[in-house]
Amino acid sequence: MKIGFIGLGIMGESMCENIVKKNNDTVYCFDYVADKVKKLEGIGAVGCANNRELAEKSDVIISMVPKSEHSRAVYEEILPVLDATKTCIDMSTIDPSVSIEVSEMVKKTGAGFIDAPVVKSKPAAIAGKLGIYVGGDEETFEKMKPILSYMGENIIRMGGNGKGLVMKICHNALVSQIQNGVNETSTLAAANGIDIQTFAKAISYGGAGNFYLDSKKDNIEKDDYTTAFSIENENKDVHICKKLAEECHVAMPGEENAIRVYEKAMEMGLGKEDFSATIKVVRSYE
What we know:
This protein is α/β, with parallel strands linked by helices. Helices cover 55% and strands 13% of the residues. The protein contains 13 helices and nine strands. The strands form two sheets. It has a six-stranded parallel sheet, with helices on both faces. A three-stranded mixed sheet has the order 7-8-9. Helix 5 links the parallel strand 5 and strand 6. Helix 4 runs parallel beside helix 5 and helix 8 crosses helix 11. The longest helix is centred in the middle third of the chain and has 29 residues.
């Protein structure tokens, strides 16, 4: 099965690389940054000149782009070459309502469509161990699951189109609140002479243990904010959550506080740093 991959950013690059290594047929790729395409060509992918050429040549088209407007633009561009022989998988984290619009547009051509956003960050993308939340009909999900398995090991269908994204937004919103709790309490502990490693060990003895702290304590200790998942990307996701909550008339005061932290981080010029750098917002308090 010929697979095309659109969007070779921090996550997409490694996801596409895993497909190249594991798929037994041609893998096409495209990104507007030519050097990213050349890098994937170096490990066996076939670069394309644009999204439409990629879609014409591929049986399965996968997209991993930053925002709702980018996803919509991709599918509007490739729409004329879609038909019942093709399936589209959008793995971008975008507004669920936009994804549903795109799915309806694509399915009118006869092509299949699922949303399949991912959780975890760059190391998991490299290892092919992402978590993947899927929205779409069960038949298309089962057909595409082997391809998703090239990139992830925990794959779950959440319901119809858009539901994978709803779950991704809920996941990232919860992470933002856990992260904010870690930032505040570890900074308070540090102000009282308790270092981050001792703090993390003590937390693990009780009910507040969490993956975020376990995975980021070394980075926090070293002030190493090398980007695995950026502040600007999580800022986008928490604002999608805010919009979704408003549409559903759900109160989320904890998330509103996390959003304020992310907005402050963006104001501080931290957008390109790893999202763990939000601790700088708490530390900046005087």
